[in-house]
Design goal:
single chain; 310 residues; alpha+beta; 3 domains; seven-stranded antiparallel beta sheet; 4 helices; disordered C terminus
Length: 310
């Protein structure tokens, strides 16, 4: 299972963010990071990394995590990066610092926030949970007999099937057969599912379970790294697009990159769910308005709204 740092490295290795790089310092000073392995490339311009973010997440002191390379702060022949003040409180490779660094054209704090949003709003695996009903027409999703505490919105809800028999020979019948309906609803900030008619026996709830956020560099994220990397790019370019619009700048290039990342996120998510979950196709939930199920996240993602569209 990858860490947040490993997923950022996967994102950088996709080579879609120009100038983003990572490596390990071979030397360091109060205002410098040297990497003779990767950065000593004679012929590069001294402005190659001008004003880029120099991110050292393994620095011995958190005050040294973030700096920016000066306008001419790159020495191509020696692989030395010079950052603006303040000086490092603990130099690279000193104390507990491993010397690991990253270079970003975007603020690494924004990249990490995009990663958190990707895990908790974009990346998911499809869950299928059996519930033994008790004759009610409305059920609180987080309470018994459902007890699905991670199913918190209609956006996560795919559909319901009636279960006959037991696995591995159980038969699943889509709940919508013969005019039956199910409607997600909110009541005082509590999420319910309302059935008509009341279900009997065992039903199977299909829903998408988002991943748990990881806010440090060492904890494992239980997610495929490529899936998370593209979803992070989707969230990052969405945010950069909105910032550009707010500033009155041209946001077309961010829009194009957002759309590309959105497509790749969908593809990677489909691969994960096809690989790890049974192929179960159910029609969209039939709401009282007879409209389609909600879409999936900011990108729309009509293909993720329900099994029937996949």
């Amino acid at each position: 299972m990858p860490t947040r740092q490993a997923i950022r490295q996967t994102l950088i290795d996709l080579d879609v963010v120009d100038g983003a790089s990572y490596g390990t310092a071979t030397a360091g000073g109060a205002t410098t990071v040297t990497d003779t392995t990767l950065l000593a490339v004679g012929g590069n311009a001294v402005t190659r990394y001008a004003s880029q973010y120099l991110y050292r997440p393994s620095a011995a002191n958190a005050a040294d995590y973030y700096r920016r390379v000066t306008a001419t702060g790159y020495a191509p022949t020696t692989g030395v990066l010079t950052h603006g003040t303040p000086n490092y409180t603990v130099n690279p490779l000193a104390s507990s610092d491993s010397g690991y660094y990253e270079l970003w054209p975007y603020d690494p704090k924004r990249v990490n926030r995009a990663f958190s949003r990707a895990l908790t709003t974009q990346c998911f695996l499809m869950q299928q949970d059996n519930v033994t009903t008790n004759g009610n027409t409305r059920y609180q999703v987080s309470a018994s007999p459902f007890s699905l505490t991670n199913l918190t919105s209609a956006n996560q809800f795919f559909g319901v099937a009636q279960v006959q028999g037991t696995d591995p020979t159980a038969t699943l019948t889509p709940w919508m057969n013969e005019g039956r309906t199910v409607m997600p609803e909110w009541d005082n900030d509590i999420f319910y599912l309302r059935f008509d008619p009341a279900p009997t026996g065992t039903i199977r709830i299909a829903w998408k379970k988002f991943f748990t956020d990881v806010t440090n560099e060492t904890s494992d994220a239980v997610v495929d790294s490529t899936y998370a990397a593209w979803a992070t790019l989707k969230e990052l370019f969405y945010a950069l697009r909105e910032t550009a619009i707010e500033r009155g700048e041209n946001a077309d290039h961010y829009q194009q990159r957002f759309e590309k990342a959105d497509q790749r996120t969908w593809i990677e998510g489909w691969k994960q769910n096809e690989r790890f979950n049974a192929r179960l196709f159910l029609p969209r939930p039939r709401y009282q308005s007879f409209t389609g199920a909600p879409g999936s996240g900011r990108g729309g993602g009509a293909g993720l709204g329900g099994y029937g569209s996949r």
